[in-house]
Amino acid sequence: xxxxTPRYTSHPSNRLKLECSVxxxxxxxxxxxxxxxxxxxxxxxxxxxxxxAQPERVLIDLSGVEFIDSTGLSALIRAxxxxxxxxxxxxLRGGSSQVRRLFELTGLLDRLNFED
Length: 116
Hints:
Elements: E1 7-10, E2 16-22, E3 27-35, H1 40-52, E4 57-68, H2 70-85, E5 89-93, H3 97-106, H4 108-111, E6 114-115
Parallel strand pairs: 3-4, 4-5, 5-6
Antiparallel strand pairs: 1-2, 2-3
Helix pairs in contact: 1-2
């Protein structure tokens, strides 16, 4: 894995906060706030930065996500596809009951790798 600097970033609207950390098992991206049309570009950029560093495993922790729309779901699908293309494992964790319900309704609960 290339060097990946842990960092904390916040979207200018303050509706999205991203915290990237590196441990011995995975790169963990903790997401807080809303992933929507306005904040998805910042979310995409951070995921791309992580995937380009080529860690074996990426964990996106959605436990702090209050809202996600279709652009956020698309970003997670792109992240999963990008990681798979690089031979990386991408997993998702957490999410409110409303967020989990959206994954269930769209069929993504079975398509994406969730861990408890």
